[in-house]
Amino acid sequence: MTGPSDILGFWFGPDLAPWQVERWFRPDPGFDAACRDRFGDLLAPARDGALDAWAATPEGALALLLVLDQFPRNLHRGTAAAFASDPHARAVARRAVLRERHDLTLPCTARCFLYLPFEHSEEAADQDLSVALFEGLRDDPAHAAPGGSIAYAWAHRAVIRRFGRFPHRNVALGRATTPAEADYLAQPGAGF
């Protein structure tokens, strides 16, 4: 049976390899297919809570959050299903980070994936938490650099403060786009 170590090995490579932005955050049909082929059958059980026991350890919580928060974005890119497990991901992340403090036992790059469910939220309080957590990585040059994860946390929060939601999700979620959102989306680099 597939377990946390399989997911972490696939996502990070050996020894939680350094930041791999191109692989993780840029659309890549080949990588999406690899996620689907290897781990697509874990999404429904994870969303339904069947894998919650994984969250008892830092590595298990990290793997579960990859399944709940990252894999849906790869497997269901551009559809509402990409966000269907976000509420469960936030609940797992809240427990792992705020109660268990699993994040403090992981390398900075891995910590980011415990924090991303808050960055992906359309709730202002989650965005504030995201920024606070990512700011805790300030001593790591890879995250503090311009265009690093800290800058992305601030950018996500700015969009939520401005619009109360992520306009780039409107089409997938069947929401009408306001004129102000349309102007924003027309700008180079808008959306995430």
TrEMBL record:
Q: Which Gene3D superfamilies match?
A: Tetratricopeptide repeat domain, TPR-like
What organism is this sequence from? Answer: Dankookia rubra
Protein name listed in UniProt: DUF924 domain-containing protein
